[in-house]
């Protein structure tokens, strides 16, 4: 008769969140709908990926070029059109959601990342996105970290720890986007993560220069080439690779101009040999960075579809190489999931510790919330 006194209250249902990402490769918009559980874990329910319109892609390419000169009116027009495309994508997932979405984590599109200046620029009008979707939006995740003296990136290691950390094994999480970044999750040690250097960004621009296509699908062209050891050695002399963490970078540093400066002394190489060498560069910088305490290397990002790059990586590193699919997260949506998670941390005003990741001087809230 008194059993009702001892009944446990029902667990709070997981909240719903959206995560949005468009990376340095400018290859499209990735979004995921996820459940955020009370223990901090995230379970993806639905995803959407779509290409940027040809017009906005071309305008963004011009805007992020190292020698770009852009009028403010043009920049605002780009941001407005970019936000409209993001809003349309969010509406698609919101309409398919089983219940109202609590928060959108919106990274925006990086135009320039300058840790040496203590500043960074991501476009995307969060206020408009909140109004369009009727949903709170967390945005500008990097700047709070930079205000505390951090690099502002990478921020994904915080999410990686929540999703992938194991009690008895060292786990590395490697994102192969435009830039390669690595998280090290070693039991008993602080979470560490940092940018390694180029992944897809150099190979994509080199491929576009020689083919009427955005990227080397499956790494097929690179597989026809041979690594040039002299060029590889030249590329690896860049001081960024030897720089100790914390460190972050982007296509404002690693771009076609950077590559062409090294190619001046290797002008007779076949184009496909350069492509193969760029893939080998990525594999080498990953292998050079990996701690001997890493047992499993979890790989995500667009680079997982590059068979040539993945084969070179598997040959270069000692740990077992798997994709994030092994942990039930689609490799194409790991970064979107990260910003869904970061959005919920911001929504709940959780102070996050990036001291061992970005070099920030202390913990703090990442991002700001705008409401519809």
Provide a descriptive summary of the structure in words.
By secondary structure, this protein is of the alpha/beta class. The chain has two domains: 15-150 and 333-370, ATPase, nucleotide binding domain (Nucleotidyltransferase, domain 5), CATH 3.30.420.40; 156-331, ATPase, nucleotide binding domain (Nucleotidyltransferase, domain 5). 37% of the residues lie in helices and 21% in strands. The chain is built from 13 helices and twelve strands. It has helices spanning 54-64, 72-96, 126-133, 141-147, 156-164, 200-210, 220-223, 229-235, 239-242, 256-263, 271-289, 307-316, 334-347; strands at 15-22, 29-36, 42-50, 103-114, 119-123, 137-139, 171-176, 179-185, 192-198, 296-300, 320-323, 368-370. The strands form two sheets. Strands 1, 2, 3, 4, 5, 6 and 12 form a seven-stranded mixed beta sheet that branches. The chain has a five-stranded mixed beta sheet with strand order 9-8-7-10-11, with helices on both faces. A hairpin with a 4-residue loop joins β4 and β5 (119-123). The chain is globular. Mean pLDDT is 94; it is low at 1-7.
| Strand-pairing-aware structural class | alpha/beta
CA radius of gyration? 21 Å
Question: Kindly state the mean pLDDT as a whole number?
Answer: 94
| Overall number of strands | 12
Helical content (DSSP H or I, runs of 4+): 25-40%
How would you sum up the major sheet?
A: 7 strands, mixed
Low-confidence stretches: 1-7
CATH class type of the largest domain: Alpha Beta
Give the termini separation: 48 Å
Shape summary? globular
